[in-house]
Amino acid sequence: MFTVISRKKPANDIALIEVFAPRIALDLLPGQYVNVKPTARSRSVSLPVIRVNPATGALGLLVKVVDEATALMVNNPEIFIFDGMTGPHGRPSLLTDCNDRELINSELLFVAGGLGVASALMQIEWLYNIGVKTDVLLTATTKASLLFRDQFEKICRRVYLATDDGSVGFQGSVTQLLELLPRDQVKAYSLITTFGPLKMMKQVADFALNHGIPATAGFVELLSAAGLNGFRLDVGNESLDVATQGPEFDALQVDFRHAISRSSISMASVKDSSGAIKARKISGKSPEKPMSKQA
After folding, report:
1. Which sequence spans correspond to the domains of the chain?
2. What is the pTM of this model?
3. 71-113 pLDDT, tens per residue?
4. For a tag site, which of 4, 108, 213, 277 has the least CB within 10 Å?
5. In sequence order, what are the residues at sequence separation of 6 or more whose Cβ sits closer than 8 angstroms to the Cβ of residue 49?
6. CATH class of 2-89
């Protein structure tokens, strides 16, 4: 069992939860994630780590309400001990394979939205601690949903903001803002790393491909969605499991169109299953088995 140290809500349906997990905190590297089981009867939830403190044994987890298990974590203050936590899971970021000199001499840009800001902040802080200054582009629907802006501004060289409604920063898409950056600056980037919704990451991957810039994409947010553990991506000529062979991949090799289509079908299947479970609880008997939807 794992003790909840603190629970803060930067947005209505999102919580930043600090958990005491000393062994995991000692072993976890940027790019990896954890699985949390809030109660004995709930499902295990894959979550991005936003910060880690090996000295105190604390992990910071970013959780968004997508189902009953995540709602318990975000909205139930009486749950101050999680039934289980495992990790670290997944492969570390490719940046961890580089030596400090390589990283310091690199020009790095991160693009993040949604829960992807957790993975971005984790990696950017790790880089900052070894002397690497990075740029970041944060995107959200509104100013209110733009998370951890202050933390990014403290450790990044440049912070670009884009919101759908224009309430802060640039009004428009990620691609539109990227195209406005100085050409010499864009050409200088050694790597673009993106985290967040699939459609946003596709835009970033397309931009990187068009400008000849290497890019990686992280998919922890996809794992955090209800029922999407075991999700596979087409990467180059391979079908790879996000949970075990990721969660980060070469963004220029990912078939984002197929991934977006499959995730939509999977989420619809999850909603149908949730509805069936609720109906069974209400009626006290099992309804007809819903038709299986394969991705």
Report:
1. 2-89, 94-261
2. 0.88
3. 999 999 899 999 999 999 999 999 999 999 999 999 999 999 9
4. 277
5. 28, 32, 33, 34, 59, 60, 61, 118, 119, 122
6. mainly beta
